[in-house]
Write a structure and sequence with these properties.
The protein is about 30% helix and about 25% strand. The strands form 11 sheets. Strands 16, 17, 19, 20, 22, 23, 24, 26 and 31 form a 9-stranded mixed β-sheet that branches. A 6-stranded antiparallel β-sheet has the order 9-8-7-6-5-10, covered by helices on one side. Helix 1 packs parallel to helix 3 and helix 4 runs antiparallel to helix 12. Keywords: Membrane, Transmembrane, Transmembrane helix. This is Fem1b protein.
């Protein structure tokens, strides 16, 4: 019942519709209750095995890391598994395994023998196996014992039914009625009806019934036996049970009267009733047992049903209410009551328990036990009373003496002990809140019903001194004094023996059922431990469902988060809740009190927790206190970063036909170098940009070239040669290690599911497994190769090539995947043009206009240059190279005009042996011309540059250069004036 209640409450918070469906489908029997729990349980995600990684000392960054494996699937227990690196098995090679783990089999559960136990919904995982197995065996023993009782008693009843009956006084009396001399005068002893024929189906005579004391004369007697038919077959098989099921097959003696005329039933063998006696004979008194002593079986059965129902209700109420509050004063009165009654004298003792929560739960279970003792004693007392009444009735009927009956003193003392203790518990319930008044009334009603039943049985036993005269109607009888005896009957009649077996069956079944219920309550009480029903964090990801049994969990938290909000909901049996955070950068402090059952009724809350940002591990410990012991929940906080890559995919046409270009660059690289140079893509086609975000865990790894290359968020990166245009760029990543010293030793602790190691291979394997990511089918992790994950966040867009090539694009990503509170934007320019050459002047002279790396140009004029060797050029992208050559282009006023061409082309490499033939070639032209320099200076109104250029021109050609420059300027001004005049 508790399991169903809590399961439905949990489902109600998630989906009310599912709750209604589950309640309508699985809410009738205990088996259906278990099925309902399985349905609600399987609706959640349940991993086959949990893996948690944490350092042995969370305050030491150099501490060895431990691995905790928690099996969750029933199939894992009793198996031997191997902890191996995740990957594909190569031909002729074995898996790289790290440890062999032999899991112990599941503990024995007696309820599994009855199909009532499922490891998936087991709520007693933290309870001692000996206690659970012992209580389970007791429950199974109760069921087996109850089944044996049913078989034994039913077998006795069947044997008694089919056992032949010995001749009784009724059969001899029937022969006497048939063999008497007629006519004979009779006196009516009970009222009878007259029939026209000796048949019960004949019409009644049109006269009034004959009353008691009427004198009649019998002229004729006749025996009547019913005819056999198929419909009467069941009654014929049970003809001996004549007192319970009226049997029309029994013999009836009919008598024909003289006055009034008609037929009457003189003797009914079915009920052994004589309706008349001879007129000259006196009627002897026939005694029977007092009705309060000999209770009819339907009333006996009804009393037991009421007791069993009230007992179950009382046990449930005590289990629900007693844990809410049990005062020390009530415990004192409980102890004094046990001492004063003195039933067990020195054998009984009350252990000293310091915790008040422990006291209330212990005495709640103790009260449940005593209540069962009270219930069993009441049932035993009722059974003894019924058995004694049957023996008393047998002696009274056969020997016409009174059997003296006593009282079972031990049963009375047990009952009153339980009553006294229950009263103390009832008084303690008054200290609870007003909301428990209904529970208190239910408990008190149960107590009163048991006391009343005990009083009924006790008062019934006192009626042995008051036998009753058996008479349905008033008539004159002759009585005598009955003697007393203490010797019971040797045997009981068949009817009374059957009644005794039925009474014993009902009483024992009720007692065994109560004991079985008590065992289930003990198991249920053990599951009422302090716990967190739910918990969560506002940032990060919990790797496993945060249920009440998730004692270990891993929180994957971004490295830049320095504060989280912890949301919690405590169970009904949690008295206090404490939280403590351990971090290498934090000083050790006392746990923080989050919840106290005395101070607040609301069992949900939240707490703002500050955690230093960065890659270091931290541990959050939440302790729920209560009975029988505190429950500790540990959350391992592992920091992660985000590895973001941007990929471009497009089509192009080369000498070999159409090809697909695909290239990937990291987000960090694009932030530093926003220019992205691609081949000459088809401008009439589409280009797809894809951004892939993958988590990167800051786990301890080994320093060396064999490290898994998968982290780029905290690692450096440098450019190397690219591959062919239909491939992917490669990057070399240097892994940032958080554990500087690792050893090649493997240590296994005593517990088979608790492993820890400093081994290089284990660290590398944990680096992949920590974030809960599983490689895709067909992919594997190997040193030096990028790894793939099954949960990358891919965002892609497809646009025409002319929209993406050339203009500067603004790209952004939300760093907070939950709320998007923070983000990062970069500017990227995708171009098919090669990078511009960066000009460098190493001697005299200057460039006009001035060279700028932000706004490079394809054409410059160099002024006052002595030699071309002082002018060189480089390129920012190492995948390109610059070649230069000088050529003459004519003469001007200053002499021969020359220009130097810097050609930027894709560098040949192992990945592109053709030298990147599909990439465009760029040229930067630098010309030496005094006239061009003066024109540029005048166009830009740079007077200082104009004088510097003039000083570099020889004196014999200076005037000629100025004239030509002036003429060129005049032509330019006239042209500009005409343009302005044509466009007023």
């Amino acid at each position: 019942m508790r399991h169903l209640k809590e399961a439905f409450h949990a489902a109600l918070k998630q989906d009310k519709k599912k709750l209604q469906e589950a309640a309508s489908k699985y809410a009738s029997t205990r088996l259906q209750t278990r099925l309902a729990m399985q349905v609600l349980h399987k609706a959640q995600y349940e991993p086959i095995m949990e893996l948690h990684m944490f350092p042995k000392d969370p305050t030491d960054v150099r501490s060895a890391w431990m691995v905790l494996l928690v099996p969750r699937s029933e199939d894992i227990f009793g198996q031997t598994l191997f902890l191996c690196k995740q990957g594909r098995q190569q031909d002729g090679q074995k898996y790289s395994c790290l440890a062999q783990m032999a899991f112990q089999p599941l503990p024995f559960r007696a309820l599994a023998l009855l199909g009532m136990w499922d490891s998936a919904v087991e709520r007693l995982r933290s309870t001692g196996h000996v206690l659970v197995a012992g209580v389970g065996l007791m429950f199974v023993a109760c069921l087996c014992f109850g089944s044996c009782i049913i078989v034994y008693e039913v077998a006795i009843i069947i044997c008694l039914i089919f056992r032949g009956s010995s001749p009784t006084a009724s059969s001899l009396q029937s022969e006497d009625f048939l063999g008497m001399e007629l006519p004979e005068a009779y006196q009516i002893t009970r009222h009878v009806f007259l029939f026209t024929e000796p048949d019960a189906n004949s019409k009644l005579a049109n006269v009034a019934p004959l009353q008691v004391g009427s004198q009649v004369e019998v002229l004729e007697t006749r025996r009547e036996s019913a005819k056999f038919s198929i419909k009467r077959l069941p009654s014929a098989l049970t003809s001996s049970v004549r007192r319970w099921i009226p049997n029309i097959f029994r013999t009836k003696i009919w008598a024909r009267l003289k006055t009034p005329e008609g037929w009457i039933v003189l003797f009914d063998e079915t009920w052994q009733l004589a309706n008349a006696t001879k007129a000259d004979e006196s009627v002897s008194a026939k005694y029977c047992t007092h009705p309060q002593l000999l209770v009819q079986f339907p009333a006996f059965l009804r009393r037991h049903v009421i007791l069993a129902s009230s007992h179950l209700a009382g046990q449930w109420v005590v289990m629900e209410c007693v844990p809410q509050g049990f005062s020390l004063l009530a415990v004192f009165f409980l102890f004094q009551g046990c001492v004063l009654i003195g039933l067990f004298h020195r054998e009984i003792g009350i252990p000293h328990i310091a915790s008040k929560a422990a006291q209330k739960q212990v005495y709640g279970e103790y009260n449940n036990l005593l209540r069962f003792v009270m219930h069993a004693a009441a049932l035993y007392y009722a059974m003894l009373t019924a058995t004694a009444a049957l023996e008393y009735d047998e002696v009274l009927e056969t020997q016409q003496v009174i059997l003296e009956l006593g009282k079972p003193v031990l049963a009375v003392r047990l009952v009153w002990l339980a009553v006294a203790v229950s009263v103390v518990v009832a008084a303690s319930l008054l200290e609870a809140s007003a909301t428990s008044s209904f529970n208190f009334l239910t408990f008190l009603t149960t107590l009163i019903l048991h006391i009343l039943d005990l009083s009924t049985s006790s008062s019934g036993l006192d009626k042995w001194r008051q036998p009753q005269i058996e008479a349905d109607e008033f008539t004159a009888v002759a009585s005598r004094q009955l003697e007393h005896t203490t010797s019971g009957p040797k045997t009981l009649s068949k009817q009374r023996a059957v009644l005794r077996s039925l009474a014993s069956l009902v009483s024992r079944l009720c007692a065994v059922s109560g004991l079985a219920v008590l065992m289930l309550i003990v198991l249920d009480v053990q599951s009422t431990q302090p716990q967190l029903t739910r918990y969560s964090f506002d940032r990060g990801y919990l790797q496993y469902p945060a249920s009440e049994e998730a004692y270990h969990n891993t929180l994957v938290l971004p490295a830049d988060v320095d504060s989280v909000v912890f949301f919690f909901e405590v169970g009904a049996h949690t008295s206090h809740l404490f939280l403590k955070c351990v971090h290498p950068l934090l000083e050790e402090v006392e746990p923080v009190l989050l919840f106290s059952a005395k101070d607040r009724a609301e069992r949900t809350g939240e707490y703002q927790l500050a955690i230093p940002a960065g890659p270091l591990y931290s541990r959050i410990t939440v302790e729920a206190t209560g009975w029988p012991k505190p429950t500790v929940y540990t959350v391992h906080v592992i920091r992660i970063g985000v590895d973001k890559n941007l990929a471009i995919t497009g089509s192009m046409t080369g000498s070999g036909g159409a090809k697909i270009f695909h290239e990937v660059r990291s987000w960090q690289h694009l932030a530093r170098t926003p220019e992205w140079y691609v081949p000459a893509l088809d401008m009439n086609a589409n280009i797809t940009l894809t951004m892939v975000q993958k988590p990167c865990a800051f786990a301890p790894v080994f320093v060396g070239t064999s490290c898994p290359l998968w982290c780029s968020h905290a690692c450096s990166e440098r450019q190397v040669f690219g591959i062919r245009v239909n491939g992917t760029n490669q990057t070399v990543q240097v892994v940032a290690c958080l554990s500087p010293s690792l050893h090649d030793s493997f240590i296994q602790t005593g517990h088979t599911s608790d492993l820890w190691s400093d081994k290089e291979a284990l660290s590398a394997w944990l680096g992949e497994m920590l974030t809960g990511l599983v490689s895709l089918a067909g992919s594997y992790l190997s040193p030096g190769l990028p790894c793939r994950h099954c949960i990358p966040e891919n965002v892609s867009t497809t646009q025409p090539a002319h929209l993406l090539l050339g203009p500067r694009l603004e790209l952004g990503t939300a760093m907070g995947p939950e709320d998007g509170s923070s983000g990062e934007q970069i500017h990227v320019r995708i171009t098919s043009e090669p990078p511009a050459a960066q000009l460098i002047m190493n001697g005299a002279g200057f460039l006009f206009p001035r060279f700028s790396q932000r706004e490079p140009r394809r054409k410059y004029v160099v002024c006052c240059l002595d030699t071309w060797d002082s002018l060189s050029a480089t390129v920012s992208d190492a995948r390109y190279e610059v070649t230069a050559h000088v050529e003459s282009v004519g003469d001007d006023c200053s002499g021969t005009v020359e220009q130097k061409l810097f050609t930027v082309a894709r560098r040949p490499s192992a990945y592109s042996p053709d030298g990147g033939g599909l990439y465009k070639i760029g040229q930067t032209v630098v010309m030496t011309s005094a006239q061009a320099c003066l024109s540029e200076a005048m166009n830009t109104d740079n007077l200082s540059a104009f004088h510097d250029i003039g000083s570099c021109i020889p004196a014999e050609r200076r005037r000629q250069a100025w004239n030509r420059t002036a003429i060129a300027m005049a032509q330019t001004l006239v042209q500009d004036w005409r343009l302005d005049a044509s466009h007023p």
